[in-house]
Design goal:
Radius of gyration: 23 Å
Strand content: under 5%
Low-confidence stretches: 1-5, 392-412
Strand order of the largest sheet: 1-2
Largest sheet: 2 strands, antiparallel
Number of helices: 20
């Protein structure tokens, strides 16, 4: 039995290898088309790559860039110029500058982030019991069937941050499913240095681990509050690395802007000149309407008309949200919505609300790219829901055959296949977003 388990653990996952090969081949083909366009070739450093400029400044012992770059989103504060985005992508790039100098291949870098994200998504769905082919198709939906598709072909500053965030969060949730708590929390802390709203993922992790710990012992009828704190405090070791990483972010913000919470965006001209600033509740309802009720228009000649900036229906731009709604509604109807999944929904809701309180919703490729940051939470939810369904179905079927529960719970579980509507959603999402990537390069 033990030898068989070791054999299974060492088994080469050829489906994952095939997925990586197909994606790499796809990027080579795409960049062959891009070679005479502004996006550039696969090994090019993209001209929007301000993270490399920041890393080069660090090598010179400076936190500022030394001068302004008019074609980039640069924050100006007290006569100095700074990268206006959270700094973690520059941490990744910093060692690469010793090899490539100013020519870090940022187009290749975003491709690598996309491959890592797809691999973690695949692993999450495999862990949740999906068959290899279904897991690969869902992984493609996550990366190629979302706004991440176009971002993964252009090594600009915004896209580096979002794709690295996507890879880190998917890695965090896979680590959580494998019981690697410290790693999971650390990866989320790194992700916050790419996209600050990723901090909501701490909520999902904390409640998930709390539910696991609570399940090992029954809460006493008295002193339930004490039981909660005692169980919650079991996670204290997991917070050490995130606290250290957060302190580093705060220190870096303070030496640049004199404010531990300021990454620099408030000092961009577009927000300085805005009467309501970068964040305001006055933006909320307009942006919510754009994200949920703004669709593609089909003209009489069958050409398409769609927005490029500030919002587009997320169910069309990122169809994995269609699957998330189905899973959530199913759990509610079947009364399976536990605290862990409720926390994931809360984290998704908070991310959407925070995003919609921002003045803009992200430009280009349908204007919904900010919602890619929520996709790892969707994958985590789908995994927990699938694990719950597989476990209950398998155990109940075994019990119906007359087996005891203790024996039924350790029986091999049937792998899950995608339903027809899920395959349709995956195919549509991939087709539409590959079109979007091409449209952004050749039609605009």
């Amino acid at each position: 039995m033990e030898a068989n388990a070791k054999t299974q653990a060492k088994r080469i996952d050829w489906m994952l290898i095939c997925l990586m090969v197909i994606m790499i081949a796809g990027y080579i083909l795409i960049h062959d088309l891009y070679k005479n366009q502004s996006a550039g070739k696969l090994l090019d450093n993209h001209h929007w790559d301000s993270y490399t400029l920041q890393a080069l400044s660090w090598r010179e012992g400076r936190a500022d860039l030394g001068r302004n770059y008019s074609y980039l989103e640069i924050a100006e504060y007290q006569g100095k110029f700074y990268v206006s985005f959270p700094p973690f992508p520059s941490v990744v790039i910093f060692p690469l500058t010793f090899v490539f100098g100013a020519n870090v291949p940022s187009n290749l870098l975003v491709m690598i982030y996309a491959l890592i994200a797809a691999a973690f998504a695949y692993k999450i769905f495999r862990h949740a019991g999906f068959k290899e082919g279904s897991s690969a198709l869902l992984a493609l939906l996550v990366v190629w069937g979302s706004n991440a598709m176009w971002m993964s072909t252009v090594g600009g500053v915004w896209f580096q941050a979002q794709l690295l965030n996507l890879a880190l969060l998917l890695g965090a949730f896979y680590a959580a499913l494998r019981g690697k708590r410290i790693l999971a929390y650390a990866l989320v802390a790194c992700a916050v240095g790419c996209r600050p709203f990723s901090m909501v993922c701490f909520i999902a992790l904390f409640v998930y681990f709390y539910v696991l710990d609570r399940g090992k012992s029954e809460a006493p009828k008295r002193n339930r509050l004490a039981f909660f704190f005692r169980t919650a405090l079991k996670q204290w070791k997991c917070f050490i690395i995130p606290i250290c990483i957060a302190a580093a972010y705060m220190w870096y913000n303070f030496i640049r802007f004199g404010n531990v919470f300021e990454f620099g965006h408030n000092y961009l001209p577009e927000f300085i000149e805005s009467p309501d600033g970068q964040f305001n509740v006055s933006y909320l309802f307009t942006n919510l309407k754009r994200l949920f009720l703004r669709f593609v228009k089909v003209n009489p000649d069958l050409t398409l008309d769609y927005p490029l900036f500030d919002g587009f229906c997320i169910f069309v731009a990122n169809p994995i949200f269609v699957l998330s709604v189905v899973y959530i509604v199913t759990d509610i109807v079947c009364k399976k919505l536990d605290a862990a999944r409720g926390a994931i929904i809360a984290a998704m809701f908070l991310n959407i609300i925070f995003t919609c309180m921002h003045k803009t919703l992200g430009g280009w490729q349908f204007g919904a790219r900010y919602t890619v940051d929520i996709i790892p939470l969707v994958c985590f939810y789908m995994a927990l829901a699938s694990l719950d369904t597989r476990s209950s179905v398998t155990v109940n079927a075994a019990i119906n055959r007359g087996m005891k529960r203790s024996r039924a719970e350790v029986l091999p579980q049937t792998e899950k296949r995608l339903k027809y509507y899920e395959i349709f959603v995956c195919a549509f999402g991939i087709m539409f977003n590959v079109y979007g990537a091409m449209a952004m390069t050749f039609l605009q």
